[in-house]
């Protein structure tokens, strides 16, 4: 893995390439995704089946497109006690974390005779996307929990899950067990942009939803971007990223492993180490190659590391933090002697992992917080998938006659300033 001294023009170019890579949708990608969406809007299930047959499985038909109760039962029978134990722990810890995000409705009486408040309501229907690369054989089972649990905690009644099928037209049984564990009964065998189109516009089999959440590849991300506004979306959760800030006390083998953990997600994944120790930089660089060669998915991780991986040697940890705030990484690991001392200075990051025993995968699967996180610098203004993505707030206002009289003149003055006479009239008419 390449080592750069930072600051330097060469290091700056690598940093800029990393920033630019994440949301780099080409005109051609956009046109293709728009065409998929338009077609699903026009032809509904027929288009969905056609694209699913072409890209993922020729075995899916209109009759087998929705997962049946029998398929759920068959899947559950295949689960090992070991998997069910891990699943239970993940569900329990994620539910506990997301339950703390619940917001209550409130009503206040700030002035005599005036009541104002906010009513929190779940959306009626949500769509969840679970990525299913490699022909749906090894889908991100954990993404089902990350989407489904906050939706359930928010109180959403109708939840539809979309995921690409395997070549034989089936869905990975672990994914179905995870869906069942969080109470999702409607699972459809479709991936990519057409699955997002089906959720956004509805088809005869897929209910139209209010909100679509979940990570996915460039086609999923682009489709979500295009339909946002027609429906709510969580964010553009693009290719995975990890940035590690480490000093000479950190273990180089662990750092190499953590960098590779995110590089294996995608050819466009980014894995960056920022350290003030030249010695650590050399050791991590040397540790990458053997660990990479031992990975079954070494092609993806290797290409990602080559294209966007970097070890940046900085003068001090303060410079490392400034750089991290600029990159606003999806995942930030702080592997320095006293990691909590630096937390106050972290401004932009999707999730922060503190200390030597908090590798990023603890957060991917089990710790409790959501693993659907902003990428490509968007952690500057957006946050992890949460219960709030499945709720909306309605403002409440009430005036008594006396309170109305007291404030009416001010409203008339402000309305007249905007030359909105009908507004002023709606107030003055009540004084007669
Ligand atoms: N930011 C986050 O929180 C987060 C979380 C988890 C995963 N991720 C990212 O999500 C992504 C998952 O992507 P994935 O590929 O594994 O699964 P995916 O389900 O998003 O993509 C597979 C689908 O894309 C379709 N596809 C393939 N080629 C196509 C083409 N040319 N045109 C249209 N559709 C095509 C496939 O047929 C399949 O349906 C990765 O980039 C990973 O890093 C991000
Ligand atoms: N690290 C991914 C988010 O970037 C989430 C994930 C799912 N499974 C494993 N990892
Ligand atoms: Zn991961």
CATH fold group of the largest domain: Rossmann fold
The tally of structural domains comes to 3
CATH class of the largest domain: Alpha Beta
Number of strands: 14
| Name given to the CATH homologous superfamily of the largest domain | Nitrogenase molybdenum iron protein domain
The profile of the biggest β sheet is: 6 strands, parallel
Helix content: 40-55%
Runs with pLDDT <50, length 5+?
none
List the main descriptive attributes of the protein structure presented here.
histidinol dehydrogenase activity, zinc, 14 strands, NAD binding, binds nicotinamide-adenine-dinucleotide, NAD, histidine biosynthesis, 17% strand, 432 residues, Rossmann fold, single chain, 16 helices, 3 domains, alpha/beta, five-stranded parallel β-sheet, binds zinc ion, binds L-histidinol
In short:
The chain starts with a strand and ends with a helix. The strands form three sheets. A six-stranded parallel sheet has the order 1-11-10-9-12-13, with helices on both faces. Strands 6-5-4-7-8 form a five-stranded parallel sheet, sandwiched between helices. A three-stranded antiparallel sheet has the order 2-3-14. The protein has three domains: 3-23 and 238-368, Nitrogenase molybdenum iron protein domain (Rossmann fold, 3-Layer(aba) Sandwich); 27-103 and 122-233, 3-Layer(aba) Sandwich (Rossmann fold); 401-431, no CATH class.
